[in-house]
Amino acid sequence: MKQIRVLLIEDHFLARMALHSVLSGHAQISIVGEASDGEAGIAMYRSLRPDVAVLDLRLPRVSGFEVLAQVRKEFPGARIVILSNYQGSEDIYRAVRSGAMAYLTKDASGEELLGAIQNVHRGLRYLPQAALGRLAERMPAVDLTPREAEVLTCITKGCSNREIADELGIAEKTVRIHVSSVLDKMGARDRTQATIYALQRGLVHLD
């Protein structure tokens, strides 16, 4: 079983030690580095290139939001799990919009954190129902037709226009029209953002 290389970016010593203890006890996890502030976190990410980074948002010198933005700018494929005391919808929304693939609060269990890391490592997003609920509160309703809802579900699965056409039994040209309409109604600039919005608004659900 291939190990998941994890970088911890957390300023509180005891919290960092607790994370290390919980995660390093699992055979699939290898803690490759620990940073106690945002500036060090960015530098360590550059040098270590971990599979997954676990990031706190409240950090000295450089905030977690700035770390997230900088790392994602330099490494667009970076897989980052937010672990924070912040529970407000705006914080969750901002983190997800900035590229975080998972958002957990610090009262999450070790098992849930491990599951989030494993999902993110596989390229999947992980947002607990509580986080999705808070996001849904701040998002306006989206009025999709039944066909557009089907197209959106296919988009969240990563299907191409051709694959959507085959799945729904419609012309590829028609799919392009539906995709354009879905993005417009959701205020999304691309498919990735539409997927994030769909999860936030509860329009689709992760299996």
UniProtKB/TrEMBL annotation:
<feature type="domain" description="HTH luxR-type">
    <location>
        <begin position="137"/>
        <end position="202"/>
    </location>
</feature>
<protein>
    <submittedName>
        <fullName>Two component transcriptional regulator, LuxR family</fullName>
    </submittedName>
</protein>
<dbReference type="Pfam" id="PF00196">
    <property type="entry name" value="GerE"/>
</dbReference>
<dbReference type="GO" id="GO:0006355">
    <property type="term" value="P:regulation of DNA-templated transcription"/>
</dbReference>
<feature type="domain" description="Response regulatory">
    <location>
        <begin position="5"/>
        <end position="121"/>
    </location>
</feature>
<dbReference type="InterPro" id="IPR016032">
    <property type="entry name" value="Sig_transdc_resp-reg_C-effctor"/>
</dbReference>
<keyword id="KW-0238">DNA-binding</keyword>
<dbReference type="InterPro" id="IPR058245">
    <property type="entry name" value="NreC/VraR/RcsB-like_REC"/>
</dbReference>
<dbReference type="InterPro" id="IPR001789">
    <property type="entry name" value="Sig_transdc_resp-reg_receiver"/>
</dbReference>
<dbReference type="Pfam" id="PF00072">
    <property type="entry name" value="Response_reg"/>
</dbReference>
<feature type="modified residue" description="4-aspartylphosphate">
    <location>
        <position position="56"/>
    </location>
</feature>
<keyword id="KW-0597">Phosphoprotein</keyword>
<dbReference type="GO" id="GO:0003677">
    <property type="term" value="F:DNA binding"/>
</dbReference>
<dbReference type="InterPro" id="IPR011006">
    <property type="entry name" value="CheY-like_superfamily"/>
</dbReference>
<dbReference type="InterPro" id="IPR000792">
    <property type="entry name" value="Tscrpt_reg_LuxR_C"/>
</dbReference>
<dbReference type="GO" id="GO:0000160">
    <property type="term" value="P:phosphorelay signal transduction system"/>
</dbReference>
<dbReference type="InterPro" id="IPR039420">
    <property type="entry name" value="WalR-like"/>
</dbReference>
